[in-house]
């Protein structure tokens, strides 16, 4: 018990607080005194804040929860989770394809599955913007572990078993292996190197939007191209998306409304933000990767190896992955905002890293003129409150 300091042995039965039940839509909790007080506070914060609050959500369930918690859209819908489970085999077919026709077969099989995913999410967020990030991780993440597969193949060979598929898979895993995958073939680079991958995803999004319009809905998809470092990368991908949109509109007889933008997560993208803005209708700052790229950190490695020493010795007061490094990463965000808006005054700006739910970081994002923050559904109420508090503090000091 964090209040009393008591420690209980074993698992202790717990229940959601009345406030949590209220946010989850339990009408019976509405009469609780604490719930009434929190509701009044949230209403006041919402009336004061300029900054919108969206949620990071990858499933219809998360999207619906985020909406109940007061989210004004989805700031990050990650599509890589949609390629796991039973669909991993289809991704394997795509990777193992030896000619374009086999690649197209794999993409054609993935298309209706992706379309169904996006239709459900757009329905859950009907009337609100949904920013969908096209595939970001390197492809090897969808393949078996190299060591385990190599052992399996070796044992099969020793037993005299002939399994050509496993041999092809092992060759593919070896071919796609990267020493530093975070800086390798991922994000927009996948879309350029594997023709049809990003256009399949864009078609799935736009066909889902057309289906929602036909059903009387109001879908507001925003297609986000990840890891852009050069304006030419975004230009290539945007041209493909526009071409697919024209095809879908012709096929469905539906007029589609959508945006195309990019994540700003590389220092080079910051420096060329004005050029990138020429093709982007929105920027979303991926502050997790931007922090890694700026500090030269690999988060998975450094947090367990030397962060505690750095904190003890005062190199930083708090982990830069928890609260934004204002002097370094924050300065880059401010620079990209300035350069992007100078080139495109109507550029929509948001943040979708974990910092979008951090109180101190929210105040900074408000001060540099971002339009929204996006965070975990469960942090949406906190972000709403802090965005309101930031507006009040700003008006008091003006």
Helix content: 40-55%
Q: What name is given to the CATH topology of the largest domain?
A: TIM Barrel
Instruction: Return the string of H and E elements.
Output: HHEHEHHEHHHHEHEHHEHHHHEHEH
- Segments where pLDDT lies below 50 for 5+ residues? none
Number of helices: 18
CATH class descriptor name of the largest domain: Alpha Beta
Based on secondary structure, the structural category is alpha/beta
What integer value in Å does the Rg equal? 23 Å
Which band does the percent of strand residues land in? 5-15%
The CATH H-level homologous superfamily of the largest domain: Phosphoenolpyruvate-binding domains
Return the average pLDDT rounded to an integer: 93
What is the number of E strands? 8
What are the salient characteristics of this protein?
single chain; 398 residues; alpha/beta; TIM Barrel; 2 domains; 8-stranded parallel beta barrel; 54% helix
Tell me what the structure shows:
With 398 residues, the chain is an alpha/beta fold. It has helices at residues 18-23, 33-48, 60-68, 88-96, 100-124, 146-158, 164-176, 188-193, 197-214, 231-252, 267-271, 273-277, 287-295, 299-305, 307-312, 326-343, 359-367, 380-397; strands at residues 52-56, 74-78, 129-133, 220-225, 259-264, 282-285, 348-351, 372-375. An eight-stranded parallel β-barrel has the order 1-2-3-4-5-6-7-8, surrounded by six helices. α9 (197-214) crosses α10 (231-252). The model has no long low-confidence stretch (mean pLDDT 93).
């Amino acid at each position: 018990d964090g209040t009393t300091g008591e420690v209980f042995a074993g698992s202790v039965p717990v229940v959601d607080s009345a406030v949590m039940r209220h946010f989850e839509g339990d009408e019976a909790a509405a009469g609780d005194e604490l719930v009434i007080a929190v509701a009044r506070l949230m209403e006041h914060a919402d009336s004061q804040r300029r900054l919108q609050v969206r949620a990071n959500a990858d499933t219809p369930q998360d999207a619906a929860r985020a909406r109940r918690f007061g989210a004004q859209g989805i700031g990050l819908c990650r599509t890589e989770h949609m390629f796991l489970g039973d669909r991993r085999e289809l991704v394997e077919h795509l990777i193992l394809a030896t000619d374009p026709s086999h690649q197209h077969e794999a993409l054609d099989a993935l298309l209706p599955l992706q379309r169904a995913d996006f239709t459900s999410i757009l329905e859950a967020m009907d009337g609100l913007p949904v920013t969908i990030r096209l595939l970001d991780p390197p492809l090897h993440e969808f393949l078996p572990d190299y060591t385990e597969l190599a052992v399996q193949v070796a044992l099969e060979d020793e037993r005299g078993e002939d399994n050509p598929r496993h041999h092809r898979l092992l060759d593919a895993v070896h071919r796609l292996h990267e020493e530093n995958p975070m800086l390798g073939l991922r994000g927009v680079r996948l879309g350029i190197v594997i023709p049809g991958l990003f256009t399949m995803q864009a078609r799935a999004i736009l066909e889902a939007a057309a289906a929602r319009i036909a059903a009387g809905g109001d879908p507001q998809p925003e297609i986000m191209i990840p890891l852009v470092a050069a304006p030419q990368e975004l230009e290539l991908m945007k041209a493909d998306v526009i071409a697919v949109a024209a095809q879908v509109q012709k096929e469905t007889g539906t007029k589609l409304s959508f945006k195309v933008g990019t994540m700003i997560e590389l220092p080079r993208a910051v420096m060329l933000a004005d050029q990138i803005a020429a093709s982007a209708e929105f920027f979303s700052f991926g502050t997790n990767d931007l922090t890694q790229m700026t500090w030269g950190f690999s988060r998975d490695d450094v947090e367990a190896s030397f962060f505690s020493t750095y904190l003890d010795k005062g190199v930083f007061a708090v982990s830069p992955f928890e609260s934004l490094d204002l002097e370094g990463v924050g300065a880059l965000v401010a620079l990209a905002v300035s350069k992007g808006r100078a080139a495109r005054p109507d550029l929509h700006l948001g943040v979708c890293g974990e910092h979008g739910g951090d109180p101190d970081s929210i105040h900074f994002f408000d001060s540099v003129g971002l339009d929204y923050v996006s965070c975990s559904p469960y942090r949406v109420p906190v972000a709403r409150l802090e965005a309101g508090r930031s507006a009040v503090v700003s008006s008091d000091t003006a």
